């Protein structure tokens, strides 16, 4: 495994010894915590480095994410926001997760890595979104839910001209087609799509960049309503 070289080749970023140490501590903390709290089924070192860390960084060429504010919806064990924060320390990160066990892990992880400007919100995403409109430069979601649902939750939280970055798997294109109406109704516009393969046959990824063109009130709706009547 040559993670440092792959990051250099793919993203033109040379990881410092300090950043490599942070990724190493991240891995150790994740595996240690996973022995008593289920955070991930991916535990082999190389798998974690590529399926979680490298995968989180695939949106770097896609958007100028070096600073500003980023909201990571339902990030689980901190993906993609914490790997991005390791690369770009100036980034202001907010992570929303409804599971207290994940928030507890993230709280310990942030302390362990010695990183600041990370706000952890233990709340349902749609409830947080109803109370935090037009707040962020970027919103990310990685393998969180179907595209229509996550679009309705994400776009209201963006500032106008902010960007929602949806990270999906190999079926992303079909999901995007289904979500066209949701993107339009919430004031968004698809700006870019990227389809890529992770190194070492670790799978296919789709990344969609949706810009908020104008703010539309009334979203996100209550969760059951979103499920019952998708946009």
TrEMBL record:
It is an enzyme of class 2 (transferase). S-adenosyl-L-methionine binds at residues 74, 79, 125-126, 142. PANTHER family: S-ADENOSYL-L-METHIONINE-DEPENDENT METHYLTRANSFERASES SUPERFAMILY PROTEIN. InterPro entries: rRNA_ssu_MeTfrase_G (IPR003682), SAM-dependent_MTases_sf (IPR029063). It comes from Haploplasma axanthum. One of its GO terms (molecular function) is rRNA (guanine-N7-)-methyltransferase activity. The lineage of its organism: Bacteria, Bacillati, Mycoplasmatota, Mollicutes, Acholeplasmatales. GO terms for cellular component: cytosol. Belongs to the methyltransferase superfamily. RNA methyltransferase RsmG family. The keyword Nuclease does not apply. Specifically methylates the N7 position of a guanine in 16S rRNA. The gene is gidB. This is Ribosomal RNA small subunit methyltransferase G. The keyword Zinc does not apply. Its main location: cytoplasm.
């Amino acid at each position: 495994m040559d993670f440092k070289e792959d990051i250099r080749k793919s993203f033109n970023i040379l990881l410092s010894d300090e950043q490599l140490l942070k990724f190493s501590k991240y891995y150790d903390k994740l595996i240690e915590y996973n022995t008593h709290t289920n955070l991930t089924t991916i535990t082999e070192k190389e798998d974690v480095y590529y399926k979680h860390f490298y995968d989180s960084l695939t949106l770097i060429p896609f958007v100028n994410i070096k600073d500003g504010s980023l909201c990571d919806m339902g990030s689980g064990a901190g993906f993609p926001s914490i790997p991005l924060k390791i690369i770009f320390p100036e980034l202001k990160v907010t992570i929303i997760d409804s599971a207290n066990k994940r928030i507890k892990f993230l709280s310990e992880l942030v302390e362990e890595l010695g990183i600041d400007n990370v706000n952890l919100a233990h709340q349902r995403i749609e409830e947080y979104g109803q109370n935090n409109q037009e707040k962020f430069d970027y919103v990310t979601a990685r393998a969180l839910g179907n595209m229509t649902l996550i679009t309705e939750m994400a776009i209201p939280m963006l500032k106008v001209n902010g960007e929602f970055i949806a990270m999906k798997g190999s079926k992303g294109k079909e999901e995007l087609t289904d979500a066209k109406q949701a993107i339009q109704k919430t004031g968004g516009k698809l700006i870019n799509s990227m389809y890529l393969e992770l190194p070492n046959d670790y799978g296919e990824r789709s990344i969609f960049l949706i810009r908020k063109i104008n703010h539309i009130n009334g979203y996100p709706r209550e969760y059951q309503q979103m499920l019952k009547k998708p946009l």
